[in-house]
Design brief:
By secondary structure, the chain is an alpha/beta fold. The protein has helices spanning 14-22, 34-47, 58-69, 83-86, 91-96, 112-118, 148-161, 172-179, 183-187, 213-225, 234-246, 251-265, 293-303, 329-340, and strands spanning 2-3, 51-55, 75-78, 99-102, 129-135, 165-168, 192-196, 207-211, 271-273, 282-287, 306-307, 309-311, 315-319.
Length: 343
């Protein structure tokens, strides 16, 4: 089976499993797990922040960031297809009492002009902006990357307007590899930034929220409030340390595999790419025909030994990762061509 549903299906490496078995642990709720502490220190350093907090998931990290930044009744500026809108079950409303204010970016790449249009003037009848969330890379936009120059311009605008920025950098290291810069060059233009260990980095569990020391201290309280406090979490953090040491640079291989898949799909009847070309490790295609036909194609793909995810508007998403070898791409292309040819 070729599993292209997501890079979340990656398995921990042998080195990660060994580190987990040998991890030195303590009670993280007391701040006494030395392996968690090392992971948080390393994550903060990699993103150029003062401190970091280990969380069970990226969604929890995002929602904690919104909670520490935004007052109840304020707006969260975000792209309408972003993860905090599409895949977090209205958590910003449930947890923080906030509502999204959309800043549409057709190609998923945020700019200062787009953000400025979404920022409304102060007025007695208007909700104030509480935070700006930028997703980089942008999943639903095909793994699109927002350049550092854009981040810098957006940050200058946000400072002038007094709006804190949270970077949903679930795949920030993919963005860093695509741009050829350290992740800290991207994250420096956000007040807080999170990234996931359990996607292309292949660790089994966990994400890190990074930012100023005082905000991370408050974030720790929110983690507890949301039931995310962990005890001997060093067994998980150990895998995260190995991931950060060994998996970041190899993400370029996933990008190359995605480009190979994209090139193989060009010209196949019945489908067309949804994006000009992949920036990172995602390939989206639109299945031609009546609405819902993509589900039929996805079912046919599964019968042929290929898994992918379906999204609205007749789209299928293929995500490359460490557990998909470049040698498997010709077979994947063949399966897609045959499945797309079904009436």
């Amino acid at each position: 089976m070729i599993d292209l549903r997501s890079d979340t299906v990656t398995r921990p490496t042998a080195a990660m499993r060994a580190a987990m078995a040998e991890a030195e642990v303590g009670d993280d709720a007391y701040g006494e797990d030395p392996t968690v502490n090392r992971l948080e220190e390393k994550a903060a350093a990699l993103l150029g922040k003062e401190a970091a907090l280990f969380t069970p998931s990226g969604m929890m990290a995002n929602e904690i960031a919104i909670a520490v930044h935004a007052d109840r009744g304020s707006e969260v500026i975000c792209e309408p297809r972003s993860h905090v809108v599409e895949h977090e079950l209205a958590a910003m409303a449930v947890i923080s009492g906030c509502m999204p204010r959309y800043a549409p970016a057709p190609d998923g790449v945020m700019t200062a002009a787009i953000v400025e249009r979404a920022l409304r003037p102060d007025g007695a009848e208007l909700a104030r902006p509480g935070a700006l969330v930028i997703e980089n890379t942008h999943n639903m936009a095909g793994g699109a990357v927002t350049p550092v120059a854009n981040m810098k311009e957006i940050a200058a605008l946000a400072r002038r307007r007094g709006v804190p920025i949270h970077l949903d950098g679930a795949r920030i290291f993919n963005a860093a590899v695509a741009l050829g810069v350290p992740a800290s060059d991207i994250a420096q233009h956000a007040d807080t930034a999170m990234f996931c260990l359990s996607k292309g980095l292949c660790a089994p569990v966990g994400s890190l929220l990074t930012g100023p020391r005082d905000l991370i201290a408050e974030a720790r309280r929110w983690r507890r409030r949301l039931g995310g406090g962990m005890r001997q979490a060093g067994v998980l953090a150990a895998a995260g340390l190995v991931a950060l040491d060994t998996m970041r640079e190899r993400l370029a291989e996933d990008h190359a595999t995605a480009r190979s898949l994209y090139d193989g799909l060009k010209g196949i009847p019945g489908i067309e790419p949804s994006i000009p070309e992949p920036s990172t490790n995602m390939v989206y295609v639109t299945v031609k025909g009546p609405q819902g036909r993509h589900e039929k194609v996805r079912g046919a793909l599964k019968e042929r030994g290929l898994l992918c995810n379906a999204y609205g508007e007749n789209r299928l998403r293929f995500v490359t990762h460490r557990d998909v070898a470049p040698q498997q791409i010709p077979a994947a292309v063949e399966a897609i061509a045959k499945s797309a040819a079904l009436s």
